[in-house]
Write a structure and sequence with these properties.
There is one protein chain. The protein is mainly α. It has 1 helix and no strands. The chain starts with a helix and ends with a helix. The relative contact order is 0.05.
């Protein structure tokens, strides 16, 4: 009876530690992807905007200079 209880306690502690490790990993990955998306949004906006402005100016010049 003693060994059964000892094994049950070890099994319970192992299960709890594995579930805790999975929860911490999922929380860390969720936070990491949230930070990565926030960084990519702030970095993308200033880079994409001047390209769009420049492209619209080039298209306007082409239309004006057409025969």
């Amino acid at each position: 009876m003693d060994t059964f209880m000892s094994e049950a306690i070890i099994l319970e502690a192992t299960l709890i530690s594995v579930l805790l490790a999975l929860w911490i990993t999922s929380a860390a990955l969720r936070g990491l992807f949230w930070v990565m998306s926030a960084i990519s949004c702030t970095m993308m906006s200033p880079v994409v905007q001047p390209i769009r402005v420049t492209a619209s100016h080039l298209q306007g010049n082409r239309r004006r200079n057409a025969a």
